[in-house]
Amino acid sequence: MTSQSQGIQQLLQAEKRAKDKLEEAKKRKEKRRKQAKEEAIAEIDHYRLQREKEFRNKQTNVMGSQGNFSAKIEEQTTETVRNLTSSYHKNVESMMKKLLSTICDINPEVHPNFRHAV
Q1: By 3-state DSSP, what share of the chain in percent is helix, strand and coil, each rounded to 5?
Q2: If you ran DSSP here, which 8-state letter would residue 111 be given?
Q3: Which letter does DSSP use for residue 24 in this model?
Q4: How far is Cα 101 from Cα 68, in angstroms, rounded to an integer?
Q5: What residue spans carry the Polar residues bias annotation (predicted)?
Q6: What is the pLDDT of residue 37?
Q7: In tens digits, what is the pLDDT along the chain, a chain of 118 residues?
């Protein structure tokens, strides 16, 4: 009987050791999973920062060139307004004289298609 109880004790101890090993393996697996998750998050953050930096550089290049276009257009517009204003001030008096003379100087004439009734 004692050998049978010793055998049972050995089986129980072996089962306990196997259970402890299984628990230890589960803990290691969970620890490694958490570590892998943290590494993946760090890698994703690094990749995201890198892509955002590239995007900002491209955006700056594009917007910078658009800024140059805006400055050129603004300069051209200012120059055109300046020229028009100058032309207006130079020609306003002569145009007013022409306009007033056309309106005020009336030469009454009979229209060529008018038929004189006899």
Answers
A1: 85, 0, 15
A2: -
A3: H
A4: 48
A5: 1-12
A6: 95
A7: 677 888 899 999 999 999 999 999 999 999 999 999 999 999 999 999 999 999 998 888 877 666 677 788 899 999 999 999 999 999 999 999 999 998 888 888 888 888 876 5
Record the tokens describing residue 47, joined without a space: 């990749």
What is the spatial distance between Cα 107 and Cα 118, in angstroms, rounded to a whole number? 25
Q: What is residue 118's predicted lDDT score, i.e. its pLDDT?
A: 57
Kindly write down the DSSP assignment for every residue of 54-98, as one continuous string.
HHHHHHHHHHHHHHHHHHHHHHHHHHHHHHHHHHHHHHHHHHHHH
Cα–Cα distance, 73 to 77 (Å, whole number):
6
SS (H, E, C) 8-28: HHHHHHHHHHHHHHHHHHHHH
Find the Cα–Cα–Cα–Cα dihedral 37, 42, 48, 49, rounded to 10°. Answer: 170
Rg (CA), the chain: 49
Q: Which sign does the torsion angle of CA 34, 36, 37, 41 carry? A: positive
